[in-house]
Amino acid sequence: MKKFFKTALFVALAAAILAGCGSGATTTGSQAEGNKASTLEAIKQRGTLIVGSSNDVPFAYIDKDTKQLKGIDAEIIQEIAKRLGIPKVEMKEIKFENLLVELNNKNIDMVTDGMYIKPEREKIAQFTHPWYKEGEGLVVRKDSTISGLEDLKDKVVGGQKGTAFLEYIQKMQQQGKVKEVKVFGSQAELLLAINTDKIDAGITDSATAAYTIQHDPTLNVKLVSPYTPVFQGTVAAAVRKEDTDLLEAVNKELDNLKREGFVLKVLQKYGLGQDNMVE
Question: By its UniProt entry, which SUPFAM superfamilies does this protein fall under (predicted)?
Answer without folding.
Answer: Periplasmic binding protein-like II
